[in-house]
Amino acid sequence: MKTEHIEVVDYDSKWVNDFNQIKGEIEEALKDLVLAVEHVGSTSVPLLAAKPIIDLDVVIDRKDLKEVIFLLEKHGYIYEGDLGLKDREAFRYEGKEHLRTHHLYVCPQDSKELKRHLAFRNYLRKHPNTVKEYGKIKKEAAKLYPNDIEKYCMYKSQIIEKIYKEIGL
Prior knowledge:
Elements lengths: L13 H17 L5 E5 L13 E7 L4 H10 L2 E5 L7 E5 L8 E7 L3 H15 L1 H17 L4 H19 L2
Helix pairs in contact: 4-5
């Protein structure tokens, strides 16, 4: 799903419930093929302003990828490939109006992208001053570039790179 209009809002504690609802459906669809479902991205960090879209990384065993793709497609997800990021398979969906808008990714447990998502989330959860600074920058970016996701991302890139440096990525 391509972002058409960028809106960054204050943190909403309902995002945890939204994540859990989506996670429940994914676990039901994939049963024992799921090793974990991780809430990643800005909505996973308490008090961080974010686009109100849930990001999920479904962690699987690499050997199960074909079966996972098949089962997710059976449950309304459309496989989009890795979109240029190795070991992170993207899915869009149709007919999930009962769920919060979300981005679903499937990652093998040894995925560098998964490790990067978790390290970034965990760093922010432990650094409230960085959360405030990052949230402020995200809101500024959304105001400046409400219809240009590339410029929005570029505006945030300096603080993101600073955080990556802090965590050694």
